[in-house]
Amino acid sequence: MSYDFDAIIDRRNTACEKWDMLEQIFGTDDVLPFWVADMDFAAAPGIAAAVQARACHPVYGYHKKEESFFAAAMDWEKRRHGWALERSWVVNTPGVVASLSAAVLAFTAPGDKIVIQPPVYPPFFTCVTRNGRQLVENPLVERGGRWEMDLAGLERKLDPAVKLLILCSPHNPVGRVWTRDELLALGELCLRHSVTILADEIHCDLVFSGHRHTPFATLGPEFARASVTFFSPSKTFNIAGTYTSLAALPDPDKRKRYGDLLAALDINEGNLFGLTAAEAAYNTGENWLDSLLPYLEANADLLADFVRREMPGVKVEKPEGTYLAWLDFRAIFADHAALKQFLIRDAKVGLSDGLAFGRQGEGFARFNFACPRALLEEGLTRIAAAFKKRR
Ligand SMILES: Cc1ncc(COP(=O)(O)O)c(C=O)c1O
Fold first, then answer.
1. 10-residue stretch averages of pLDDT, the chain, 391 residues long
2. CATH number at residue 72
3. Mutate to test the pocket of ligand 1, among 34, 120, 235 (most ligand atoms within 8 A of CB)
4. Structural domain total, the chain
5. Within this chain, do residues 143 and 248 fall inside the same structural domain, yes or no?
6. Residue 214 CA neighbour count, 13 Å, CB half
7. Pick from 284, 319, 344: which residue ends a domain?
8. 295 and 278 co-located in one domain
9. Domain range spanning residue 329?
10. Residue 6, in any domain of the structure
11. What is the best residue among 18, 39, 96 to mutate for testing ligand 1's pocket, by most ligand atoms within 8 Å of CB?
12. Is there a contact between 325 and 316 (Cβ–Cβ < 8 Å)?
């Protein structure tokens, strides 16, 4: 079956964050949006069919979590990533961000330290600070145009108050798909200092040719026990609005603490349409995903080539995974506010503000290229044209 990723779907007036919140986010409706991380593509047809079939039954009462949902998720991890999960390790959670915050509460006490590696997904900051824990930033470093983890810096920061490290794998926004060796080096360091790794693997299925996602827990049994992994079909299959995710806890003690916390917050119930969509995604969406990935990768190539050719001074690396590109405008804009103004007012595009990903994002913007190619070309052309006018 072939899928039409070129189709332009009007998402306006569907209470859609990306297209219906432009005024609130950018101060104007007059921008083409490439910000929040969902895709402008229709989800796989099997998902819509399952949701519609369930919606045909007119009673939407409390929902029982079916074993078939867990089986679908575990089969997927095994088939796509070679990770053989045990059923007892896995719990259903209401979205990855909520799952991370719950883990912060379950595994740390107020005042404990938690490491993140910015620039990184904004809720990594807030799930620490809003829960009264201390944030320790260990920024990524750029070596020869490639973003890497700063393990020497990390080692210096790992004092006994550090209890957790939140890993973004693959990494939003820099698009790195961490290699097995990189993860091993990180894991060994964390194990040596008794630091638990929260592995956010929400982008694990969005990996381009030549790269392979390594689930952190597959590094070995000791790494599995020292970590909690979060995954979800939401990014992979464009069903983020359904807030349905999973957490895997191979260590029985962590499982008990996390399970108790979910129960204490009463967030261990499943969402009817979320579970329906997720199970259908894992069971029927593989062919769709295998068609989507080359389309996304062609968009990534197009974006990187275009930026290098038409936007002298702007730096970008083709991402290894995710559908996000991290654009470096520092050589052109000394002032971040001027960059923002240029993108919104002159180019009329709505990218994610680099500073949302930490102070390391000053002079950067994140471009979400999960959209029909014509929209991507329009967005890039707008930026290039605005640069020409500026010269
Ligand atoms: C690294 C990362 N984690 C989590 C999320 C969101 O997860 P959820 O919508 O399930 O809370 C995103 C969305 O962009 C993300 O990039």
1. 94 97 97 98 97 98 94 98 98 97 98 97 98 98 94 98 98 98 98 98 98 98 98 98 97 98 93 97 98 98 98 97 98 96 98 98 98 98 96 73
2. 3.40.640.10
3. 235
4. 2
5. yes
6. 16
7. 284
8. no
9. 17-44+286-390
10. no
11. 96
12. yes
Residue with tokens 């590109």: 325
Same domain, 247 and 307: no
2 domain residue, yes or no: no
Residue 150, amino acid: D
Q: In terms of C-beta distances under 8 Å and separation of at least 24 residues, what long-range contacts does 350-354 make, across chains too?
A: 350/22, 350/25, 350/26, 350/31, 350/32, 350/33, 350/34, 350/35, 351/34, 351/35, 351/327, 352/35, 352/36, 352/173, 354/119, 354/326
Please report the pLDDT score of residue 117 as a whole number.
98
92 and 132 share a domain?
yes
Q: To test ligand 1's pocket by mutation, which of 39, 92, 93, 97 has the most ligand atoms within 8 angstroms of CB?
A: 97
Distance (Å, whole) CA 80 – CA 101 = 27
**Nearest ligand 1 atom, CA 97:** 11
Residues 229 and 294 placed together within one structural domain of the fold = no
Find the residues whose C-beta lies inside 6 A of ligand 1: 37, 95-97, 121, 168, 172, 200, 202, 232, 234, 240, 245
How remote is the CA of residue 202 from the centroid of ligand 1, in Å? 6
**Predicted confidence (pLDDT) per residue in 67-112, tens digit:** 999 999 999 999 999 999 999 999 999 999 999 999 999 999 999 9
- From 242, 263, 284, the end of a domain falls on 284
What predicted TM-score, i.e. pTM, was given to this entire model? 0.98
Rg of the chain over Cα atoms, rounded to whole angstroms, equals: 21
In whole angstroms, give the CA distance from residue 336 to residue 74.
44
Contacts of 253 (CB under 8 A, 6+ apart): none
